[in-house]
Design goal:
290 residues, alpha/beta, Dihydrofolate Reductase, subunit A, 2 domains, eight-stranded mixed beta sheet
Length: 290
Amino acid sequence: MQEQHELYENARKRIKQKKRLYLHFIIFLVGSVFLIILNKVLKLGETYAENWFVWAIMLWLFFWVLHFVNVFITNKFMGKDWERIQTEKLVTKQEKRIEKIKKNLEREEQFIAESEFFNEQEKKKIETKQTLTLIAAIGSNNALGKDNDLIWHLPADLQHFKNSTSGHHIIMGRNTFESIGKALPNRTNVIITRNPNYSVENCIIVNTLEDAIKIAENDNNPFIVGGAQIYNQAINLVDKLIITEVHKDFEADTFFPKIDKSIWKEVNRQNFKADEKNKYDYSFVTYLKN
């Protein structure tokens, strides 16, 4: 790369400058000793100003110090090994910069790809009037489940789920499907899993949420039905939330993401009291994006 080549050439130039400075210093020392010998031993120059050689040495020293300041010399010996080490350091530093730039470019490309996908999804929704809906039942503390199973039994909620999703695609993670135990009838069951060998009768297997949504592109109202990881990925992508609020705190190991009321507007609520079939008070709540 041009920038790397320029850095390399600059390093070579600086090394030569420092070597010249070192040579200058050696010549200064040898020359100073030579001037002293000429004046004190050989008695040359006594007809001139007294201690003329001292002024000559001082002037020489001034130029050497000036040279020293200009090239920021260090105390290290500047031989072949030093040149090699300095060059390797600069090359390594440049390689790290290049690697960092590559990683940034990869992240930008991924972000652009994701943005293009979601923009395409929004465009398709406008064209097909598709409504992507997330449906879930949660406790007062946002509890979803424990040990990959429900932590309450509400027949009314099961019927509500069936009525809402019948005739549509239902998109779920593998753990959620396995907690159900079978493909739900009168619905297109789409399972998201990273296992390339996973196979279930009467179900469509995909690897990502994006792939699952593409599968359901001809459905005017596909549903995201769980679990917690899929809810977290989908909540900012869907158009509608259908939430069953079970009015009790439950001990759980999976939780629903917090519903941001600045993004979601409650448009409908139906409240119900506990009865002989449904042990807890509950509400059916519908949210739409602001």
